[in-house]
Amino acid sequence: MRTLARFASLALLASSLALAQGPAPKRDPMAHFFAPSLGDLQAEAKEARDAGKRAMFVMFMWDDCPYCTRMKANVLSLPEVQEFYRQRFAALAIDTRGAVPVTDFTGRQLTEREFARAQGIKVTPTMVFYDFDGKPLARFAGEIRDPQEFILLGEFVATGAYRTGSFAEYKQSAASRKGS
After folding, report:
1. Is 2 domain-assigned?
2. Residue 119 included in any domain
3. Is 16 within the bounds of a domain?
4. Are 124 and 142 in contact (CB under 8 A)?
5. What CATH number has the domain bearing residue 150?
6. Which domain does 112 fall in, by range?
7. Which DSSP string corresponds to 65-103?
8. Which pLDDT tens digit goes with each residue over 37-94?
9. Edge-to-edge strands, sheet with 89-95
10. Looking at the predicted structure, is the pLDDT value of residue 14 above 90?
């Protein structure tokens, strides 16, 4: 009986500690998800290639976009999402209404707004993965609310699955594998 009481006490203590710790604290995505931008996409692509990244990840957004704000707060702020993307991609933010100068992948100088227009960005957020020469590999328009789906989008590009199918097909296949 004493052993059972001791076991119950230890179990209660362990569960109390787990609850007290909770999930990992959220971190500012502008500091921990996105890399500080040099404003020169050619130079940033070269750095990413040299660092062994798989591609460039660019999220087109603007400050007052409610979908972008929610995505930053609920997905991009999570340490596991930040670590996954920072290991595989150079992640940059482009303000679709911004006047900050940017040198695009061809060396042309534009404002962020002009670059977004040149890329055909119509809604925010829009996420585009580029190869190191500036060729779009995959594009996703709209908010992603589920951190696992966002990581799955990164896996879709990192594994090269974008070459043989759509993200919707990849996501469905992943759900099938998970259910098996």
Report:
1. no
2. yes
3. no
4. no
5. 3.40.30.10
6. 25-179
7. -HHHHHHIIIIIT-HHHHHHHHHHEEEEEEETT---EEE
8. 889 999 999 999 999 999 999 999 999 999 999 999 999 999 999 999 999 999 999 9
9. 89-95, 55-61, 126-130, 136-141
10. no
